[in-house]
Amino acid sequence: MYGGCQDPSCVDMGRLQNKALEVLFESGYHLGGRKWAFPADPANYREGRRTRDDIDQIVIHTAEGYTGGLTTFQDPGRGASAHYAVEWDGTQVQMVADEDVAWHAGGNIGTNDRSIGIEHAGFAYAMQPNTETEWSRPMLRSSAKLVARLARKYGVPLDRQHIIAHAEVPGQSHTDPGPYWPWARYMTQIRWYYYRPYVLGAAGALGIGWYLLRRRQKRQV
Ligand SMILES: [Zn+2]
Fold first, then answer.
1. Distance of CA 30 to the CA centre of its chain
2. Domain 8-220 in CATH: superfamily?
3. What angle do CA 175, 144, 181 make, to 5 degrees?
4. Are strands 45-46 and 101-102 parallel, antiparallel or unpaired?
5. Is-contact 69 121, C-beta < 8 A?
6. Which of 11-15, 97-101, 199-203, 213-217 is modeled with the greatest confidence?
7. Residues 6+ apart with CB under 8 A from 159
């Protein structure tokens, strides 16, 4: 834990909601919709050619700040980066390409090599439930959608051994995303977005089947 904001009263909500967007509008690349790119400085990650076979974990972080690390990852002396940030309003930002190795999990334990790291706006200990600063629902939904897309693309299993907290990476000292991250709801949302295309496809097929059956029945009358 760092950043020193451990209580809801120390969070400036206006800044939390707007600061990253100001930075994006000024210096980011709009990819369409609520997706942006804001490339990290190449000194902050290792170029790689990772494919589906190399990636099997997604690591959840909180930025302990307002901008999801956007500007700090531009600083070539930072020595850290993450692939994505999801902002308080649900805006998604890509900072490092999936195939490259971002330095987000710490240490030399191999987690960086096999994972994709996602930062979230907010503070691990200040986003307490039933306060005005509790984890943003649009951010959680957007993040779940992003994780579902990545899990499908890279074959990451939808369980807590493969979708993990930074705190759960062996041998490091970070505690994010902290005790208030709503893991049960978040994992349910990830599964919903993951299976939704199949559910909708099956529902569509059932609907067509029902329609054809009805037509046949009518003709027989
Ligand atoms: Zn972290």
1. 18
2. Peptidoglycan recognition protein-like (3.40.80.10)
3. 30
4. antiparallel
5. no
6. 97-101
7. none
Expressed in angstroms and rounded, the spacing between residue 27 Cα and the centre of ligand 1 is 24
**Tens of pLDDT, residues 121-166:** 999 999 999 988 999 999 999 999 999 999 999 999 999 999 999 9
CA 168 to chain centre: 16
- Backbone Cα Rg of the chain: 20
Q: How far is the CA of 194 from the centre of ligand 1 (A)?
A: 24
Instruction: Indicate the length of the chain as a whole number.
Output: 221
CA of 1 to the centre of ligand 1 (A): 9
Residue with tokens 């939904």: 141
- Ligand 1: distance of its center to the CA of 211 in Å? 51
- How far from 209 is each of 10, 92, 221, CA to CA, in Å? 57, 38, 19
